[in-house]
Design goal:
This protein is an alpha/beta fold. The chain folds into 3 domains: about 240 residues, Rossmann fold (3-Layer(aba) Sandwich); about 80 residues, Orthogonal Bundle (Arc Repressor Mutant, subunit A), CATH 1.10.10.10; about 80 residues, Helicase, Ruva Protein, domain 3 (Orthogonal Bundle). About 40% of the residues lie in helices and about 15% in strands. It is built from 17 helices and 17 strands. The strands form 5 sheets. It has a 5-stranded mixed beta sheet. Strands 10-13-16-5-17 form a 5-stranded parallel beta sheet. A 3-stranded antiparallel beta sheet has the order 1-3-2. The protein is elongated and about 85 Å long.
């Protein structure tokens, strides 16, 4: 599964709508977590990491002092830890588990081995996803021009994609192989604008689901309340450190996609979950490439998406059997070179907001792509060579003017020229050689 693309940096040119981190909880009640859950999390942290200073516990658990103080007091009173001071200030306080504390920690670890930032509640997660919904994001014609300006794409197709991105609904991109569907879909990442808050983890029925994924979520420049030098304890932190400000997420998956991947991934030994890709992609974009090429039949994948696409909510189940509802705030892009009628019935296709056909190029569009690739590969463009490619190969064999062919053919010209120590040129001989390498023959 692939994630972010370089083109997403183009969103810097788009006017951004800045989300805000949720405010820091002032009490355990506002955390949405049970007192026992917090005690267990702190105890497990001390068990795995050994002696920890107070500021290290805050930094590691992302819990504010208003929540930590009563939990640490309880652990001390239960004789589960001992407190050591190396000075008079609060920053000089350290905590270490006693033998009793280690025994309790081992019991807690058997329940769940999750040790890290405190999770957020499902209620708080639902509220935050709604606040930063991808459907509230505006994509303008100017933004589209900035992202696709140097690419050769029909104006009518760009207009469709611009409207589709504003809808927040699913996009079905279809057309022959090599027409540039995937290339266009990946560039849609550059249209995402606005920042979103992503939680480290989520808790449902005391079960932890890890959401933040460094391969998917790209944080903004961090602004930590806890500095490595000059540390100051802030009992009234402005924002909730359990969340991270990130760019809108982008996930791409292809032939490896299976139905099991769309459900919670429970680690039997660690006893906690990894969120499925559509949850990690919330408030962002998810590209399903080569639809119909998966091991799982396309109709089964489509049936799995019917409710989420229609109602913008998904239903997941814990290993205990408990089911819960979670937001499905994702622009899903399905890309395929198969006929739509072979993949899904009319009822499903109706639920897709936009169906966009990407076909063959005109001669002029094909020429522009060829010129761009020549410039990139440092191969002199030849009009005579271009006409030879059109008339002697495309038109005689009936091969469509697909967007992928110029690059693939010209890269072979470059390769053989390097091998022979010659200057790459669009000669008839080299074009014939590259064409015969590129296409198979029965």
């Amino acid at each position: 599964m692939n994630t972010q693309f370089p083109e997403q940096s183009a969103s810097l040119f788009v006017e951004r709508r800045h989300a805000q981190l949720p405010p820091a909880p002032a009490s355990i009640e506002e955390m949405g977590l049970s007192f026992q859950f917090i005690v267990e999390l702190i105890t497990k942290s001390l068990y795995l990491r050994g002696q920890m200073r107070l500021q290290d516990i805050i930094s590691f658990s992302k819990l504010p002092m208003a929540v930590l103080e009563p939990a640490l007091a309880f652990i001390r009173n239960e004789r589960m830890c001992e407190v050591m001071r190396s000075g008079e200030t609060e920053t000089a306080i350290s905590y270490n588990l006693t033998n009793l504390g280690r025994e309790r920690a081992e019991d807690y670890m058997r329940k769940s081995q999750y040790v890290g930032p405190a999770p957020v509640s499902l209620v708080d997660y639902v509220k935050q996803v709604k606040r930063q919904s991808v459907s509230d994001m505006q994509v303008t014609k100017e933004a589209l021009s900035q992202v696709f300006g140097s690419l050769v794409v029909k104006e009518g197709i760009l207009r469709q994609f611009g409207a589709a991105m504003n809808s927040g609904r699913a996009i079905f991109v279809y057309g022959p192989a090599g027409s540039g569907k995937t290339f266009i879909a990946e560039h849609l990442a550059g249209l995402l604008n606005g920042d979103v808050a992503i939680p480290h983890a989520l808790v449902v029925d005391n079960e932890v689901i890890q959401i933040f994924d460094p391969l998917v979520h790209i944080p903004l420049l961090p602004k930590s309340d806890v500095e490595s030098d000059g540390f100051v304890l802030d009992r009234r932190a402005a924002s909730d450190a359990r969340w991270i400000m990130c760019h809108r997420p982008v996930i791409k998956t292809g032939g490896e996609l299976t139905l099991n991947m769309l459900d919670l991934d429970f680690d039997e030994s660690a006893r906690f979950y990894q969120a499925p890709p559509q949850v990690k992609a919330n408030n962002g974009l998810m590209i399903i490439d080569d639809l119909g090429r998966q091991l799982t039949p396309a109709v089964d994948i489509m049936n799995r998406w019917i409710v989420p696409l229609d109602r913008r909510v998904d239903y997941l189940a814990l290993h205990t059997g408990k089911k819960f509802m979670i937001p499905f705030d994702v622009i899903v892009v399905f890309s395929t070179n198969l006929l739509p009628s072979k993949l899904a019935d009319e009822a499903f296709l109706r639920r897709l907001g936009y169906k966009i056909y990407v076909g063959a190029l005109t001669e002029e569009e094909y020429r522009r792509i060829t010129q761009q690739v020549c410039e990139e590969l440092n191969i002199p463009f030849s009009e005579a060579g271009f006409q030879y490619l059109l008339h002697e190969h495309h038109y005689k064999t009936g091969k469509a003017l697909s967007a992928c062919i110029p690059r693939d053919i010209l890269e072979q010209l470059r390769d053989i020229s390097r091998y022979e120590g010659k200057t790459a040129e669009m000669t008839e001989e080299l074009l014939d050689w590259a064409w015969n390498n590129y296409f198979t023959h029965d």
